[in-house]
Specification:
CATH class of the largest domain: Alpha Beta
Shape: elongated
CATH superfamily of the largest domain: Hotdog Thioesterase
CATH topology of the largest domain: Thiol Ester Dehydrase, Chain A
Number of domains: 2
Number of strands: 13
Structural class: alpha+beta
Number of helices: 4
Low-confidence stretches: none
Mean pLDDT: 95
Largest sheet: 5 strands, antiparallel
Order of helices and strands: HEHHEEEEHEEEEEEEE
Strand order of the largest sheet: 1-3-4-5-2
CATH architecture of the largest domain: Roll
Length: about 290
């Protein structure tokens, strides 16, 4: 539904004025006054011979199974905005005016009118419309209270994507530098502190010279597909079948395994030039993956 249609519907409802009076289910009564004042801790000795003015809305509540009348302006405007995608609601402000105390036995009725619909507005909750109504409570023909009530009907933001369920690697003291690097956007490759040899996957001892004082270098992230498989079955958490797993030889000479993304499996070949992609799963895990370059 367009903004123009919402505005036209609002104008019609405003022009319609008050809805038909709706009679309270029960007259003002002492038991309900006692329940109210006890719940609020109000020990005013005037109650329950008279009702607290702030109870005025209580007497005409619809109840758990109640339905808004067809001519209720707030209900009608709410339905229009719901249809337009503004499905969430929050009350923003309310002002009540009381003309006198109510007495047990008096039977209230209420009527409402739509006075204003303003929007669409950008708010912290999302884009929405401010809807204002005025309700008047009466005993017979005598008005005894009014209420201005304003709500924001807003379009809820898209929910965040659910956490991805992936096979998580085991991180130990030999490999933690590698996973920490991925989280920071670096592809770290282990280097021997004695002979300078590079190796992957990381390990505690250099296979060339036997030294046990490794460091690392940050690789460029560029390489070529050295080998690959197309995985069709079984299903793997966090992956859509089929997907490509590529063993990539970096320009630095070591080989690193990862998913090759955004490419037709039929087009993958040995020698295909690729570049590192940092696949951030959550705040604790980033996986290496590959994309075409």
């Amino acid at each position: 539904m367009s903004t123009q249609l919402i505005e036209e519907a609002a104008r019609r409802l405003v022009a319609a004025g008050d809805c038909a009076p709706r009679l309270a289910r029960d007259p003002v009564n002492e038991p309900m006054v006692r329940n109210w004042t006890e719940a609020l801790g109000d020990a005013n000795p005037a109650y329950p011979e008279v009702a607290p003015p702030a109870m005025v809305q209580v007497w005409t509540m619809l109840g758990l199974g109640g339905q808004r009348p067809a001519d209720d302006p707030l209900g009608a405007m709410t339905a229009i905005l719901d249809e337009a995608g503004y499905t969430s609601v929050v009350a923003t402000d309310c002002a009540q005016t009381y003309h006198r105390y109510l007495r047990p036995g008096e039977h209230l009725s209420v009527r409402s009118r739509l006075t204003d619909v303003v929007g669409p507005k950008r708010t912290a909750l999302g884009e929405g419309w401010f809807v204002t109504t005025v309700s008047t409570w009466s005993v017979g023909a005598e008005p005894v209270a009014e209420m201005m009530f304003r709500v924001l009907k807003f379009r809820p933001p898209d929910p965040p994507p659910p956490p991805r369920d992936v096979l998580r690697p085991t991180v130990n003291r030999d490999t933690e530098f590698f996973w920490a690097g991925l989280a920071e956007g670096e592809l770290r490759v282990q280097r021997c502190g004695d002979c300078g040899a590079l190796r992957h996957p990381p390990g505690p001892m250099c296979p060339r010279c036997g030294a046990t004082n490794p460091s690392y270098v940050v690789a460029s992230g560029d390489g070529e597909v050295y080998s690959f498989v197309v995985h069709h079955h079984p299903p793997v958490p966090g992956r859509s079948l089929p997907f490509v797993v590529a063993l990539v030889e970096l320009t630095e000479g070591v080989r690193v395994l990862g998913e090759l993304r955004d490419v037709d499996p039929a087009e993958v070949r040995v020698g295909l030039p690729v570049r590192i992609v940092f696949d951030r799963i959550d705040d604790e895990l980033t996986l290496p993956a590959w994309g075409l370059r």
